[in-house]
Amino acid sequence: MPAWKPCVSSTRTAAPTWRSSWREGVILEPQRAEAHLALAMAWQGMRNPRAALVELRRAQTLFRLPEQRARVGELIRSLRAGAPDSLRAVFARDSLEHEVAARRDSLPPRAR
Fold it and tell me: Class for domain 12-111, per CATH?
């Protein structure tokens, strides 16, 4: 069971507390993919796709099972599809960086 308990509220006035609670989960358990995924969803709910993307990528690297990583990839694609035009360059750069990193990680150690 996680050491953190998110405090979720549907009111806008509770947003700073809500965000702080999710951040606390990442601070207490930085290697826990679920904590980063939860924080990403909180950022998405707060309409901050740039911060959500950072946390989704972190969660994706921490998940071990391919199907978990694939699910996070689907969330990233969904986030990208709903992002405003002003963030297209951010998402394009992220996709390129992620693709390059994935290729580099798939190379044998001597080829890196």
Answer: mainly alpha
Element (H, E) at 36: helix 33-45
Helix (H) or strand (E) holding 94: helix 88-106
Say how far apart CA 80 and CA 87 lie, in whole Å.
8
Phi and psi, residue 84, nearest 5°: -65, 160
The full set of domain ranges for the chain reads 12-111
Kindly state the average pLDDT of the residues 71-86. Answer: 94
For the segment 12-46, what is each residue's pLDDT rounded down to a tens digit?
444 555 556 778 888 889 999 999 999 999 999 99
Asked whether the beta carbons of 22 and 42 are under 8 A apart, the reply is yes
